[in-house]
Amino acid sequence: MALSLELITATARSLLVQYGLQDVSMRRLAKELDVAPGALYYHVPSKQELLRTVAHEILAPLRAEPGDALHLMRRFRELVLPMRDVGDLLLLAYALDASLPPAQLLPEKLAAAGWPEQEAQDATAVVMRFALGAVATEQNQSLLERTEPTDEQPPRSILDTPQAMAAERIYLHGLHRLFARDA
């Protein structure tokens, strides 16, 4: 199979989910793809650009999400929370590219709800920082609290734990506060 940006991105995403963000290096990626590390740089200029590309690929389902701003941000959490280290990845990627989904769609959703353009842009920046921090924090807490499953207690989805339910309540409370224009 010929080396391509799509193959590199898919392999990097697989490494991220399987081993975590710390183990996604250009050297490891090259080894997985059985190519010299330099071959990757023909398709991706840097590791930062690779991480940005992986983030865009993960968030692609949010590019045309129906519903209002609250629905969009709930879908964001549901989409990324179960994927290991994606919160940390998205924090890095957003620092490089503030147009990551759902940030490119959120101002439109807010404008449809009557927000003036500049207010919608400013609120988008605040909401994205809140959502990214909330998801990264929740993923890191889950990783630190994780115990090995037993026969009596099979593994559960990160979304089904009591901690996740409390975190979702806090996340929704924060979104409601941020989307309340009269607050």
Count of β-strands: 0
**Main sheet overview:** none
Write down the overall mean pLDDT.
90
The H-and-E topology, N to C, reads as: HHHHHHHHH
CATH C-level class of the largest domain: Mainly Alpha
CATH architecture of the largest domain: Orthogonal Bundle
Uncertain stretches of 5 or more adjacent residues: none
Question: How would you portray this structure in words?
Answer:
By secondary structure, this protein is mainly alpha-helical. It folds into 2 domains: 1-45, Orthogonal Bundle (Arc Repressor Mutant, subunit A); 63-179, Tetracycline Repressor, domain 2 (Orthogonal Bundle). Helix content is 64%, strand content 0%. The protein contains 9 helices and no strands. α8 packs antiparallel against α9 (162-179). The protein is globular, with a radius of gyration of 18 Å. The mean pLDDT is 90.
Quick summary:
The chain is an all-alpha fold and 183 residues long. It has helices spanning 5-19, 26-33, 37-40, 47-59, 69-80, 86-96, 106-112, 117-145, 162-179.
Q: What is the topology?
A:
Blueprint: H1 5-19, H2 26-33, H3 37-40, H4 47-59, H5 69-80, H6 86-96, H7 106-112, H8 117-145, H9 162-179
Which structural traits does this protein have?
single chain, mainly alpha, Arc Repressor Mutant, subunit A, Tetracycline Repressor, domain 2
